[in-house]
């Protein structure tokens, strides 16, 4: 049973996290100097970290999805991605939906081995730390200040980011605003408590109860075997945990990979509206300290979207590429999507 579960995870996640993304795959004559592809000092820079993947899985998936490729490891500007890259399209979609949070000019990717092991994620965490320090130093040199940093992850990319957190701070005597955006992360006891690290300014955790792949791979910790959790067992007030539903149903791993990206800004804006009302009675929160509430808060973000395409295995290619369903009711999807992405929406 253990072998079967791990085989399913490796095969399924192998291409899911990379399918069509071409993380850090450079264009011919691509500009590699970060300083040459920015013009204005940003409020935020975003680094995307992919999840588990393998060469075997990608090779199998490439038979029906020809644009599956591996990318170079390390931190790279998204402008180095091929024009057909789906992550390139996602970055532009996020900017169009919420240009206050997401700026394509300051969007980066981090490539790592994608191996399904603690050691691989720990190694990748160190590489992410080193690459981020270098990037932040470049920004400080160019603009005279360090911008806020957002690490956006999918699946086990979240545990890579938490392994990076082990090494914080980035600089001595110079704090950095760090935001973690963890989507579908398999929460493991090995890294779970790192979500409460004092160097994390804000964290968002997005999961869904229908995501079976998130909790399928069992692991050992202190000689005991555990199943990953969907949410963190934490009461830290700066950790906003969000359970998402669309059309009154939960989302699977493939659904959260790309199809949900369109609604990501709406979920974050919704969490920002709801959480302050739950912790407003804690004066320490406004002093910038990582205070704790009485119990973990998990809010539900539920919206209607007739054009949302749920994963059904045979439509893997369409789901990973974010293909939306055609709707018979004229203008309904456009109206609902606009409403869902509104910063004033409370479902």
Describe the protein in words:
- The protein is α/β, with parallel strands linked by helices and 347 residues long.
- The chain has helices at 2-16, 55-61, 86-97, 118-143, 157-165, 253-257, 264-279, 316-320, 332-341, and strands spanning 44-49, 74-77, 107-111, 148-154, 178-183, 202-207, 219-221, 224-226, 239-246, 249-250, 298-303.
- The strands form two sheets. Strands 1, 2, 3, 4, 5, 6, 9, 10 and 11 form a nine-stranded mixed β-sheet that branches.
- Helix 5 links the parallel strand 4 (148-154) and strand 5 (178-183).
- Helix 1 (2-16) crosses helix 2 (55-61) and helix 4 (118-143) packs across helix 5 (157-165).
- It is globular, with a radius of gyration of 19 Å.
- 40% of the residues are buried.
- Mean pLDDT is 78; it is low at 14-37, 66-71, 279-294 and 328-347.
């Amino acid at each position: 049973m253990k072998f079967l579960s791990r085989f399913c995870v490796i095969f399924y996640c192998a291409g899911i996290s990379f399918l069509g993304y071409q993380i850090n795959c450079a264009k011919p004559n691509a500009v590699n100097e970060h300083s040459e592809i920015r013009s204005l000092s940003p409020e935020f820079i975003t680094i995307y970290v992919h999840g588990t993947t393998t060469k075997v899985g990608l090779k199998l998936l490439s038979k029906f999805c020809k644009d599956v490729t591996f990318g170079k490891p390390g931190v790279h500007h998204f402008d180095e991605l091929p024009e057909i890259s789906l992550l390139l399209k996602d970055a532009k979609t996020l900017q169009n939906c919420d240009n206050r949070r997401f700026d394509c000019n300051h969007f980066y990717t981090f490539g790592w081995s994608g191996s399904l092991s603690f050691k691989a994620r720990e190694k990748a965490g160190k590489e992410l730390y080193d690459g981020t320090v270098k990037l932040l130093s470049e920004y400080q040199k160019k603009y005279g200040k360090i911008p806020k940093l957002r690490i956006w992850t999918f699946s086990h990319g979240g545990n890579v980011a938490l392994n990076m957190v082990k090494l914080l701070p980035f600089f001595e005597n110079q704090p950095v605003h760090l935001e973690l955006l963890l989507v579908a992360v398999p929460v493991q006891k090995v890294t779970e408590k790192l979500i409460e690290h004092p160097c994390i300014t804000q964290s968002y955790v997005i999961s869904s109860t229908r995501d079976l792949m998130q909790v399928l791979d069992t692991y050992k910790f202190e000689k005991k075997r555990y199943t990953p959790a969907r949410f963190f067992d934490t009461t830290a007030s700066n950790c906003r945990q969000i359970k998402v539903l669309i059309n009154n149903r939960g989302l699977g791993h493939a659904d959260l990979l790309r199809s949900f990206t369109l609604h990501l800004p709406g979920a974050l804006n919704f969490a920002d509206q709801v959480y302050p009302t739950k912790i407003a009675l804690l004066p320490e929160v406004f002093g910038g300290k990582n205070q704790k509430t009485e119990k973990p808060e998990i809010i539900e973000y539920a919206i209607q979207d007739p054009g949302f395409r749920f994963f059904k295995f045979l439509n893997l290619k369409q789901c990973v590429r974010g293909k939306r369903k055609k709707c018979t009711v004229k203008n309904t999807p456009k109206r609902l999507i606009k409403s869902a992405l509104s910063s004033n929406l409370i479902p």
